[in-house]
Description:
Number of helices: 10
Radius of gyration: 19 Å
Pathway: Amino-acid biosynthesis; L-threonine biosynthesis; L-threonine from L-aspartate: step 4/5
Keywords: Amino-acid biosynthesis, ATP-binding, Cytoplasm, Kinase, Nucleotide-binding, Threonine biosynthesis, Transferase
Main location: cytoplasm
Strand content: 25-35%
Organism: Scytonema hofmannii FACHB-248
Largest sheet: 7 strands, mixed
Shape: globular
InterPro entries: GHMP_kinase_C_dom, GHMP_kinase_C_sf, GHMP_kinase_N_dom, GHMP_knse_ATP-bd_CS, Homoserine_kinase, Ribosomal_Su5_D2-typ_SF, Ribsml_uS5_D2-typ_fold_subgr
Oligomer: single chain
Order of helices and strands: EEEHEHHHEEEHHHHHEEHEE
Amino acid sequence: MSIVSCVTVTVPATTANLGPGFDCIGAALTLYNEFKFTRLDKGGVIISVTGAEAEKVKTDESNLVYQAFVTFYQHLQQTPPSVKIEIKMGVPLARGLGSSATAIVGGLVGANLLAGEPLSQSQVMELAIAIEGHPDNVVPALLGGCRLAATTDTAWEICDIPWHNQVVPVVAIPDFELSTKEARGVLSNQVSRADAIFNTAHLGLLLRGLETANSNWLKAALQDKLHQPYRKVLIPGYDAVNSAALSKGAYGMVISGAGPTLLALTDELHSQAVATAMAAAWKLEGVTAIMRSLSLDTQGAISTTQG
């Protein structure tokens, strides 16, 4: 077996929950982080970061990419090799677009390739879920597409969710951060039977709406009662941006992951108008936002190696 000396892993951003699919559904988007791992003879770890918000990324052993890299070798009960990690940032931090999931998946995939691929993709996935704590971001980041994850007594079952090419995700990325810890802190510890039934029905409708691009189904399906009513109070201008998106033809708007990025689903005809309206509405609230009309990434984490 030839020894791999250099690995480059490109991992897509993700949007989790999609309204009613709290902590169980996520989709990969065409926005990326890139991680390059080069084996060193000695020296521990050297980390460099370029791209948007690079100055916010830690470059010592606490870096999440390196933490995942080390966890992989600990899982094998091996000492991690000395490595240089070069990170190119394209996914904004702490915005609800799965930046931490890209780091975890990038670190694990890079480590697996440098080690000669002792773990299968499903084993890498299970390790990623264990590190992240839930599957909704790391699974689509690794596998691509839109994925529904459900646990059994012994393993995870992952279901590929068909996504019609006429359903266009538009993201509004604001100039402020929101930590996942804070976003989880506002959630209720209990839900009523009525709210549980509501979300179960709407998640089922969402799956069919994404598959068929049925506008009526999507407009109803994106509603949620488990997390968004609590979290939207942490996002200034949420209601104004939502109204703006709907007025220009969006099927609906949801909080991307834990937020504060807001995600509208629409069609190609209305995507630019929806993006412009969302940005304008947020600007009136004193928030500057970057708008992106994206697509579903269907490849997930992709890698190249050098001997």
